[in-house]
Amino acid sequence: MSVLTIEPLVPADREVWQQLFAGYNEFYGRTMPPEFFDHSWAEFSADERMHALGARFDGKLVGIAHFLTHASTTSADACYLQDLFTAPEARGRGAARALIAAVTDWATANKCGRVYWSTHESNNTARRLYDQVAENRGFILYTIPLP
């Protein structure tokens, strides 16, 4: 049986992390330039504004979670789980659930008032998990892309 661990990313994770993050972006129809990955990795390495955790089966990185906090007008700071992705071969084995739990633990330890995230309405596989671990309050997300 494989051992699942959730840990912060380390420099040796860079290559596999980038493959996973590219897979996440491809899922949403995006192709990102190399400098995008460089910027994100630098932010996660600094661990100040944006944070990252990795899910590992027997030491092999198979999932990632990226998150950040922001001020809230109606509660303590909020923790936004921006990106969550697991490698196809690791799906259905508890990595995503464990990553969500670890982000929730981090947010609790950092006195956040809530953890939240969004997903596309067609992402049925993920939504089955999300409906088990969180409350869908029915909000609709609107976006204005800027240059």
From TrEMBL:
One Pfam family this sequence matches: Acetyltransf_1
Occurrences of domain N-acetyltransferase (ranges): 4-147
Keywords attached to this entry: Acyltransferase, Transferase
CDD domains from the UniProt entry: NAT_SF
Superkingdom field: Bacteria
InterPro entries: Acyl_CoA_acyltransferase (IPR016181), Bact_Acetyltransf (IPR050832), GNAT_dom (IPR000182)
Identification of the protein by name: GNAT family N-acetyltransferase
Record organism: Kribbella sancticallisti
Phylogenetic classification of the source organism: Bacteria, Bacillati, Actinomycetota, Actinomycetes, Propionibacteriales
